[in-house]
Amino acid sequence: MIRESAIENVYLAKGNTDLRKSIDGLSILVQESFHLDPFSPCLFVFCNRKRDKLKILHWEYNGFWLYYKRLEKGTFQWPKAHNDAPSLKISRRQLNWLLDGLSLEQREAHRAVKARTLI
User: Fold this and answer.
1) Is residue 75 in some structural domain?
2) Residue 111 belongs to some domain of the structure
């Protein structure tokens, strides 16, 4: 289970990924394409060509988690691979939007508010 407090960053693989890859293949992609450490406390998210399936790779203490989601209807609003960067760093909030079928850029969402002290 994903523990939100243990997650530092979320990275999306832009474009599509061959989801026949399992833990070893995806962790190699993280190392060689993203130039990141798959053992870091991050989520690495991959989507297939049809944009109806995704996998999330996550290292926790002594092993990898591999989460898999298949949509029965509809597609994920996945970013296209149109520039040189193979990955895109997003917030946990943006990941939740994506998993709910929404765009990464929600114009209607409430902006983050920082608490002020009264002193």
Assistant:
1) yes
2) no
Is residue 115 assigned to a domain?
Answer: no
Residue 55's pLDDT band, with cuts at 50, 70 and 90, is very high
Mean pLDDT of the chain: 87
The count of domains in the chain is 1
CA-nearest of 43, 49, 32 to 86 is 32
For residue 96, give the DSSP letter.
H
Q: Rounded to whole angstroms, how far apart are CA atoms 17 and 19?
A: 6
Mean pLDDT over residues 103-109, rounded? 73
How much is the pTM? 0.83
Q: Which one, of 89, 86, 109, lies nearest residue 97 by Cα?
A: 109
